[in-house]
Design a protein that fits this description.
The chain is mainly β. It is about 5% helix and about 50% strand. A four-stranded antiparallel β-sheet has the order 1-28-27-26, with no helix packed on it. The protein is globular, with a radius of gyration of 22 Å. It starts with a helix and ends with a strand.
């Protein structure tokens, strides 16, 4: 009995569709969504709180809070400003790196108190090995440790230099960008001492962002020289140097996609693919928005969150930032003060 030709060719066509779908080209990153909120004052860092599913952006004398999944504005925490935010999931306490440091309740979004600190608070992170909030400074002491439950200063670490961003391996090692020394300081959190410093070489000028592949012990130093210097986190050996955009001020690493990323104020987001622990390639840059120089990772959705501001057309330059606003605004672009929109961008596939 002869096989009917029509069903036979239908099967072939279906098989062709399946084969084509298996070899479909990889989807590129793009700006998926943008949330705009009118406000006043300068900005610096953004935090995507993956456990609490919120986004925190200090601006002027308040901290805006957005929904990490819906992207809408939830509200703001008044009288809490500064550079960046860190959150402790256990205590439900958040901290903003101003001077003084502002402490707030993440559930009620109400201020709890001020925590007096010395030096010049800038970067901030919650460190899981110690269970402490670490305040990075451009002065001495370099790192101020805060007990997130009590909101008290619990110690300090002298690193030296102007620190920008830090990454913890979760096992007692902290890696810190030291911008004015072109080095990565390696800190033993058990002894609270710097154990070594990794030189970034002639192409690693001014590290402003940092990513860490904790599993494979690889660092990605995002530098103002428009290079990403890739290093072995155990010995500081330079593994590769790859191009990035101009004006980096933040970076990270996504273990789900094995990609490091760097946000730049020239309106680009650079991506570095880790194909293996010894092979790295620069992927196509994403056009974001002028001034979007800091970022954070939504690890649940593999979405990178960026922030910048755009001045209102009728506005004139602000005379000075509001109380607790990032002092000096030395890194232009996204940190501009004055009235205008705060733009929160969501980049993914």
């Amino acid at each position: 009995m002869k096989t009917p030709l029509k069903p036979f060719f239908q099967l072939l066509a279906l098989a062709g569709i399946v084969l084509a779908s298996n070899h479909a080209p990889a989807q590129d990153y793009k700006v998926l969504d943008t949330t705009k909120v009118m406000g006043n004052g300068g900005i610096d860092y953004v935090l995507a709180d993956n456990d609490g599913r919120r986004i925190y952006v200090p601006r002027g004398n308040q901290t805006y809070v957005f929904d990490l999944d819906k992207h809408n504005l939830i509200g703001s925490i008044t009288n809490i400003g500064g550079h960046g935010v860190a959150v402790d999931t256990k205590s439900h306490h958040g901290f903003s790196s101003g001077s003084p440091v502002g402490m707030f309740d993440t559930k009620t979004m109400e201020k709890i108190k001020d925590v007096p600190v010395t030096a010049r608070p800038d970067g901030i992170l919650f460190e899981p090995f110690t269970g402490q909030v670490l305040i990075l400074s451009h002065g001495s002491p370099s790192i101020t440790m805060i007990d997130p439950k009590e909101g008290t200063v619990s110690g300090s670490i002298d690193v030296g230099g102007a620190m920008e961003q830090a990454q913890s391996d979760g096992n007692g090692r902290l890696y810190v960008d030291v911008e004015d020394q072109n080095k990565i300081a390696v800190v033993d959190l058990k002894t609270k001492q710097v154990v070594t410093r990794y030189d970034l070489g002639e192409k690693g000028d001014g590290p402003g962002g940092l990513g860490l592949d904790a599993k494979n012990h690889i660092l990605f130093a995002m530098c103002h020289s428009q290079n990403c210097v890739v290093l072995n986190a155990d010995d500081g050996k330079i593994l590769a140097t790859l191009p990035i955009g101009n004006g980096t001020d933040g970076g990270g690493f996504n273990p789900n996609t094995m990609e490091a990323f760097s946000s730049q104020r020239d309106g680009t987001l650079s991506l570095i693919k880790e194909k293996s622990p010894t092979e790295f390639v620069a992927e196509p840059a994403v056009q974001t928005k002028q001034g979007c120089k800091t970022c954070s990772l939504d690890s649940k959705n593999n979405v990178i969150v960026l922030i910048c501001t755009e001045r209102a057309p009728q506005a004139t330059p602000a005379a000075a930032p509001a109380t607790n606003a990032p002092a000096g605004e030395r890194r232009g672009g996204g940190g501009r003060g004055g009235p205008g929109n705060l733009d929160v961008l969501f980049v993914g596939k």
